[in-house]
Amino acid sequence: MRIKKEDIFFVLFSVITAIVFASYRCMNGDFVAYNGDFQNYNIFRRLMAGQTQYKDFVNYLGSGMVFTNFPLIYLFRSFGNSVFITNFTTSILYSLMLYISFYTILHERKKAYIISSVIAIASFIVLHIGFHGTFYYQYVYDVLFMEELGHSMRTTRAFLPFLLVGIFYIFKNKLKHEHLLTEIFQSCKLQVAVYFVLGMLTIWSNDYGYSCVASFFVIMSLVNLFGKSTPLAKRVRIYCTAGISALSGVLLSAAIITRGHVIDYFSITKGISQYQFWYYGNSYDKYLTFYDIFSDKRYIFLTIFSE
């Protein structure tokens, strides 16, 4: 896969868009909006002070934000530079998310580059032009707001599944292997490497990291169940290989970022995950229970059985 003119154009366009986006954010920010920026910089500040994640402080956003931002922030050490850099990388990742999405749909690099570039700059304009109203917030804003990092680095956290798809396309195009996806889920040799890397990437964020691993296992189960006939013994070997490889990756990556304090990582991650249940409007650490189903009056056909 050779580097072409359109590749260079897309990189330059994405960088220019990101510079404009980050500069606008720095020049027009207020202290309310800076709430998330202070939380982000606190993580970087502690790392620069020599502290260890999960041992000395809680990084509730995951290590994805560290991987994508800390190298630059380490060079330009200040809160103001942190605001610029985090917004800059967010815009870059947003452009990449758009490109990977449209490349998946179109399977043509040039068209995907053009569409994603146009949407990236259009998103910036629409987000700051001052639109309001029900239609905008229900149908437009939710599509465009990923260009903003928000209070919790949402775009960086959400980039992991796109990163995995992008890595897959790189290897598929490099190896020119049309059935690579099927091979990943049915070959024990490939699974050792794929699931080990996948396991290592769980530390990217406590939400997308583990959900990506779970998604791979669901896809693997479906491929082996409905794909070509696979003997039961081989299926068991495939599942065990994937599970052990993923677990090994998780343990190794957790040991690296915590400098050996793996138990602290899992303990804090569990606490963060439990806290997130406020999203579901409950505090009993479970969702999709029978209570949830029968308590919602919109599910009339189910509710009549509980009354």
Describe the structure.
There is one protein chain. With 307 residues, the protein is an all-alpha fold. The chain is 72% helix and 0% strand. The protein is globular and about 60 Å long.
Major beta sheet summary: none
| Number of alpha- plus pi-helical segments | 14
Number of strands: 0
Radius of gyration: 22 Å
- Which of globular, elongated, flat, extended, rod-shaped describes the shape? globular
Q: Which structural class is indicated by helix and strand composition? A: mainly alpha
- Note the run of SSEs as H and E: HHHHHHHHHHHHHH
Parts with pLDDT < 50 across at least 5 consecutive residues: 300-307
Task: Provide mean pLDDT, rounded.
Answer: 82
User: What oligomeric state do the depicted chains represent?
Assistant: single chain
Helix content: over 70%
Query: Into which percentage range does the β-strand content fall?
Result: under 5%
Distance between the termini: 63 Å
